[in-house]
Design a protein that fits this description.
446 residues; alpha+beta; five-stranded mixed beta sheet
């Protein structure tokens, strides 16, 4: 009996015909991050569970309900539910914070949370993120937000709003926590079980609860922005000034608290109403106490994460442009063993120059081979048979126009083909495509 094994619920496959969409986001995020001085970092998929308990927070939904944790002999490991904790751990362990500050890193990685799957929310999802460590100044906050905004703009996205807030520092947050306890204690019995526990440990987490009842109770709760100390208030005012200087529009949203315990002062989200309930496409902020909490010296830091699946949903909704999928540059239709060997030799040479070359490996007849060349969208084709082998020449055909050029089947083939290919591609491009940010100075669409 056949076994029908399917992918786990809450995960997705990315098949070859769609991977160019992911490549678009990955290329643009990498290029822009590097233009802001960020270098790529790669970290393990799983970490010691204690890392997330200490950083994310024991009272968060992530730790209490969503982490994938396993025991390996006597060690407890967790698949990363987010990127920041592991990246900061790596920066500490590898001595990056002993080098010139600020340290700036970016990453593209998969994360895992046991949530109810829906559009824009998967159990395995992917994030682009950045972390900047070493600067306590609001100019760094503005710089990181500017980086996120630049990426969203370069992807061609619109109808996205920036929401910002300050959740203060431990000093002013203590007063705010006291005010929240007083507010929620009156209706303590109506809170969900999780939030009743949060009321004593971290009442601010109640504001992030997904329960409709808790959300209703909390709608008139005190606002952190009314409890900021002078330093935090000044930091927030300067951030707003810098964003205005950048020409970045924003809305002060005092309800933003973020879902993780390590945040301090600035928190922000880029949100849209275009993709349903999961409308936050980017979220981040400052976490000045996290590095010290994980065993390092006190080092201010900040960053953000962008969900790639949500970006793709929004790009599809708004009909954004993608990098052109790689198509076969040249297909060799062969008749006979000698022709096949020649096609294999020429393909090897072309591939060394970066061309996508193919030849028949299915024993098809000539007519079927040409149908296959059309199906894979080959730009050029070459038919090689006994006559072409004897003459040492074959016609290179541009599939769309039907134009043919006779080329020698020797060491000069690749160089001459490269000239024909370049000229044909440049003739076919319109001015709008050449001006696109996805089009490189070499004349080839990336």
């Amino acid at each position: 009996m056949a076994i029908n094994i399917k992918r786990p619920n809450g995960t997705e496959d990315v098949i070859p015909k769609n991977v160019h969409k992911w490549h678009t986001i990955e290329k643009i995020t990498r290029d822009i991050a590097e233009s802001f001085g960020f270098g790529e970092i790669r970290v393990p998929t799983f970490e010691n569970t204690d890392l997330f308990l200490r950083s994310v927070g024991e009272t968060t939904d992530v730790v209490q309900k969503e982490m994938y944790t396993v025991m390996a002999k006597e060690s407890k490991f967790t698949l990363r539910p987010e990127g920041t904790a592991g990246v900061i751990r790596a920066m500490l362990q590898n001595g990056l914070l002993n080098e010139a500050l600020p340290q700036r890193v970016y990453y593209i990685l998969s994360c895992f949370r046991h949530e109810r799957p829906q559009a824009g929310r998967l159990r395995e999802f992917h994030q682009f993120g950045v972390e900047m460590a070493g600067s306590q100044y609001p100019s760094a906050d503005a710089e990181v937000i500017m980086l996120a905004k630049t990426i969203l703009d370069r992807l061609g996205l619109n109808k996205i709003e920036l929401h910002i807030n300050s959740i203060g520092c431990p000093t002013c947050r203590a007063n705010y926590h006291a005010a929240l306890k007083n507010y929620f204690s009156v209706r303590k019995d109506e809170l969900c079980d999780t939030c009743r526990d949060r009321l004593e440990k971290n009442p601010m987490r109640i504001l992030d609860c997904k329960s409709p009842i808790c959300q209703e109770i909390g709608k008139d709760a005190p606002l952190i922005i009314d409890y900021l100390c002078e330093e935090c208030s000044d930091h927030f005012e300067k951030l707003k000034k810098y964003l205005s200087n950048f020409g970045i529009e924003y809305t002060v949203d005092p309800k933003i608290v973020r879902g993780l315990d390590y945040y301090t002062k600035t928190v922000f989200e880029f949100v849209t109403t275009e993709i349903g309930a999961q409308g936050t496409v980017c979220g981040g902020g400052r976490y000045d106490g996290l590095i010290e909490q994980l065993g390092g010296q006190h080092t201010p830091a900040l960053g953000f994460g962008m969900g790639l699946e949500r970006l793709l949903l929004l790009m599809e909704k708004q009909n954004c442009d993608y990098l052109t999928p790689k198509k076969c540059d040249i297909y060799f239709a062969v008749m006979g063993e000698a022709a096949l060997e020649k096609a294999m030799q020429l393909s090897k040479s072309l591939r060394e120059y970066g061309y996508y070359a193919e030849y028949d490996m299915m024993g098809r007849g000539l007519k079927s081979q040409m149908k296959y060349a059309n199906k894979i969208g080959a730009v050029f084709s070459v038919v090689i048979g006994d006559n072409e082998i004897a003459d040492g020449k074959a016609k290179v055909k541009h599939m769309e126009s039907g134009e043919e050029t006779l080329l020698d089947l020797d060491d000069r083939f690749t160089a001459v083909f490269e000239e024909i290919y370049f000229n044909r591609i440049m003739e076919a491009l319109d001015d709008e495509t050449k001006d696109s940010p996805l089009f490189s100075f070499t004349g080839e669409e990336q």
